[in-house]
Each structure stands twice: as structure tokens, then as C-alpha cells.
Amino acid sequence: LFDLVDSVAGSHQSLILVGHSAGAAVAVEAYFQKPDRIAALILESPALEGHGPPQTSFSFDWSRVSFSTPLVKIILTRVLESAIGMAWHDPSTFTEKDRYYYKKPLEIEGWEVALQLFTLSQTPRIFVDRLNEIAVPVLYITGAEDRVIPPNLTESYAAATPDAELKVIPLCGHVAHEEQTETFIRSVIDFLNDRQLIE
After folding, report:
1. Model pLDDT for residues 7-45, shown as the tens digit of each residue
2. Rounded to an integer, what distance in angstroms lies between the CA atom of residue 12 and that of residue 168?
3. Considering only CA atoms, which of 42, 10, 48, 20 is closest in space to residue 136?
4. CA gap 121, 126 in Å, rounded
5. Residue 134 burial (CB < 10 Å; 0-12/13-18/19+)?
């Protein structure tokens, strides 16, 4: 992450990192790697505790299963497709065009291998006990109807973070940036203005 930013903007830039769901864990991990480079964090429906692979009605040790096995790949595809609809508070607003673009990554060769590596890397990635160490402003955003990361989890993260603000968006699920775009953007801008992080 930092190599990419440095190649584009130079190493002198302070960063405001925005992370959604598992991306929030990446943002927090980046903060702990180089806290002096981070000016603020914006964490939307953060998955900070390593929730593992998509849940099904059966369970087994995912570390012993190859995601590339044809049957497992078919099951994963169907589980992921059904999980996409769960992200919205109002599934009727989730259009076929949305579904098309959400499924595009599943056309990339090797997507299931990347998912397995990501899933297996989740277990030790637990930052909840270190949230009190974050010394920059943090905006937590959650949908009031989030069925993927329950809002009470996000609320507990905000309570554990010294300089945190919590925005709960009503009539919204796991994808506030898509479902309530204007409210999401306004919340971010207000937060950055209040903290004098933008001009």
C-alpha cells in the first residue's frame, strides 16, 4: 500500500485511509505499520475480527479444502452470489446491473485461490484489542440494518477508539457508500471538515 502511494504522491504525504468491511482491516493494519503516515481513518462496516469464509449451513476446516476443486468452486460462487443480496437493506434496489458488476471478479482466473489465501490470513488479523492505541481521528460508519457486520459491533469499536466518531445511517445495510451515497459522502466531508483535515 505505502509503496503504491509513494510511487504516485511521494513519501511525504499524510494519508486518510478509507476501508469498507475487510478493507477496514487493511486500513487499520496499515495504520499500525506506519502510524506516522496516517492522518485519519474512515472505517465503513468494519470487519476487524477475521470472520473467515462465507457462512453456510455446514462447516468444516477450510484450511484443508482446496477452493479450486470444481464442486467447492461452484458452492462458493453460489454462496457469494446469495451473500451479495444480503448487503442491501432493501434488496429491491439491488439491480441486475449491480449484480453483473459484483459478479465480474468471479470471472478472473484464480479468484478462488485469492479468496482462500485471504480467508486463511484472516484468523490472526484481530485488531479489536488494539483500537485504544489508535492516535488519529477515526470515523466509523455503519448501516442501521447491516446484516453482514452487526451495527452493535461497529458501535463497540467506536467506543474502544479514543478519538472516534460514529455515524449510523438509517434504512441502510452493509454498503452505505452505495445504498445511501449522499449521506455517506456528507458524513465523510463533515468529519474531515470538523477535524480540519481538508480545506
Report:
1. 777 777 789 999 999 899 989 999 999 999 999 999 999
2. 34
3. 42
4. 11
5. buried
This prediction's pTM: 0.82
Cell reading at 167: 455515524
Read off the C-alpha cell for 180.
445511501
Can you read off the three cell numbers belonging to residue 150? 452487526
pLDDT (tens digit, 9 = 90+) per residue, 136-152? 999 999 999 999 999 99
Are 173 and 88 in contact, with CB atoms under 8 Å apart? yes
Compute CA 78 distance to the chain's CA centroid, rounded to the nearest angstrom: 21
CA distance 65 to 113: 11
2-50+125-194: CATH homologous superfamily? Alpha/Beta hydrolase fold, catalytic domain (3.40.50.1820)
| Parallel, antiparallel or unpaired: strands 164-169 and 138-143 | parallel
